Queue: 2 jobs
Job 1
Amino acid sequence: MSAVLEPVSASAAGATRLLSDALLDAIGSRAAAYDRENQFFSEDLRDLQEADFLRASVPVEFGGLGLSLPQLLREQTRLAYRAPSTALALNMHLYWVGAALHLYRRGDKSAQWILEEAGAGKVFAAGHGEPGNDLGLAWSSVKATPSADGGYRFDGRKIFTSLAPAWDWLGVHGIDDTDPQAPKIVHAFIQRDSGGHRTVKTWDALGLRGTRSDDTWLEGAIAPRERVIRVLPAGIPDDPFVDGILGAVLPGLGAVYYGIAKRAFDVAVESAKERSSAAIGGKTYAYKPLTQQAVAQAAIELASIEALVERAAQRWWTGYGEDEPWIAHLLAAKQHAVDGALRVVNLALKIAGAASLSRHHELERLYRDVRAGAFHPPNADAAHEVIGQAWLGVLGKV
């Protein structure tokens, strides 16, 4: 990855908070009901579109606000602090924008149309998840069949399609094995009104229920030639477009889980300041040494998550050197965020006590939401493997 990246615009340099406290309060007030009813966050989406959140990182020249990645992540954290499902699902839209932006900043206009569509208010979703595919973008169980005009037909099943009820464009990948000796992975986009796809309502999960990450069946879905972004050799991808996906999705995930952890910490601390303890003469739990120790442990964890996510995002935005293992840095930030957030939420329940077990307590919901972090691809095992291989200089050679 080149260290030389041109800024999109200077307009965002002095940007202030995009999402108002009043908006976040309204979004936060709906989170419990979305979770309880396993309902998509339609009202949140409407409000966030009106607040320009979905086009915040789109360059100004394409109708966006021109926020940098670090600026965007701070807003994602604030959103996740109140509504984790909403923030997590919208990260899927934002990472497509981020991938297109990465190319655009390098002078590559092959995905510029994504920026234009996002700037015009269109919603993008990710069709990458597949049952049994633990190779991610290096392989696919979805068949991509080329057509004479340069487009592709896609057939197969995608899982975990967050934003299933709302997307306008679905980014997918599939395998073109026309030549079995040289299979290719095709990255392309299908439009909702083009047909050849259907949503199967399978989403009834432990946490992050409002994402409505239902299954998508591709049954002759067509991506025309101009919406085919890349055709790459099967195997570990080496391409700036895929790099751009990783550079957007991994810090975004880190920001979401940092927001969850920060909310759990704040809720628990307030609880400790209010709950009284008969064992210490009616003083609050804030005066108990074990509570103080748990709060300190959580605070240290939070500080390290924030610092690493911020650092990784800033380095990605300004550009890593050619010989730096940038993927190891990005994966480390994501993995530390999801692992650390789990530790913070567990400590928060300990601090808040048995009341947090109630289905009406916010910490009970956060306890469920935070557990999804281990499963976002690449999962914990794969992330550690890639980080180790990157530092050892054997990534793509084993």
Note: The CA atoms of residues 325 and 392 lie 10 Å apart.
Job 2
Amino acid sequence: MRRFHYAWVIAAVTFCVLLVTAAVRATPGVLMVPLEQEFGWSTAAISAAIAINIALFGLIGPFAASLMNRWGVRRLVLCALALLTASVALTTQMKTQWQFTLLWGVCVGAGTGITAMVLAVVVTNRWFEARRVVVLGLLSAANATGQLLFLPMLARFIQAAGWRSAALAVAGISALVFVIVFVLMRDNPEDLGLKAYGWTPSAENVAATKPLAPIPALRLALRSPAFWVLGGSFFMCGASTNGLVGTHLIPACHDFGISEVRAAGLLAVMGIFDIVGTTASGWLTDRFSSRYLLFAYYSLRGISLVFLPHTLATGGVNLNWFAVFYGLDWIATVPPTVRLTANAFGRENTGVVYGWIGASHQLGASLAALVAGTLRTVMGDYRPSFWSIGALCFLTGFAFLFCKQALERTAKTRTPELMLA
């Protein structure tokens, strides 16, 4: 462990993959206003394509974890990056709404689904024994930060040269990451004659245990109270981040006379502080109760969303403080959620079960993106969406104060259940 270990190269490459593919998936958020202006498409129509994108991103995740075990991480990630590069480049030629839905909804959703949050779980479980939760927190932050960090650059591209230039820039970055993965990524430490970072002989039995396939894992999970608690809370996590703020903050700012570049800058601030918040959450998860951490994260997030319409109306420095706070809390929920998943279902099944929990996250994001866009089209206002999702996040936080027995009962009984499955 004192010498440099190739696991850190793998972590860095995975960080780049998650950063860029998340940026690709989030790009329609900054394209919403230009597409409305050029093609006359409604917010609801564009939101429907984004909802398909987000839903596929989540639903493919569990199967991606299984395919990584069968075909290898490197091969699957290269296929995903190739699909993303081609789809985004073809976007510049689209003329109709169904082409937007196909390219940004179906193709980009499928490509990013392969590199979903489950990729971080698979990589950390294969390459790290020590520092696993901290590395997972950092990689999870990359997944969220990529959605936010590139948006100011894209907004300036759009302002200076049009949205097609922004799409070509995103395709070029995706192609660059393809080359990085091709050169540096490896599937397992054993491919280089290594053991996982911090490996000890006691970890050998866990590594040798065969994980469940996606459908058997889902059947097992659905019988577990822990899955409903974690999946339900992650549903609200996705609704309040990717679905609502990540997709609709820029058009919501536009409604209050705030420029797209300024709004994209706010999302970038969230992305920067998300790295700090999620990495710190990994550190805290190693030291404090995951339930109490999740209570704090969800309840504070709910309060901030309830007051967001007032913050947008006042503008100024208050919006900057909102961006800092919301960024710190953006995906801070991931490390404690993964820890509770591993406790409940076993480390060998963490990737595939967490893939289904992540699917719940993206279904929540998909529904929130669609509903918020529809309410904006029908009512001309985002405030009902901010208030309702904020209140539900607050209630989700308090649910973790009462779920201790369900989580502990699942943890105690998981070994016999897995044997029967």
Note: The domain at 7-189+201-420 is CATH 1.20.1250.20 (Growth Hormone; Chain: A;).
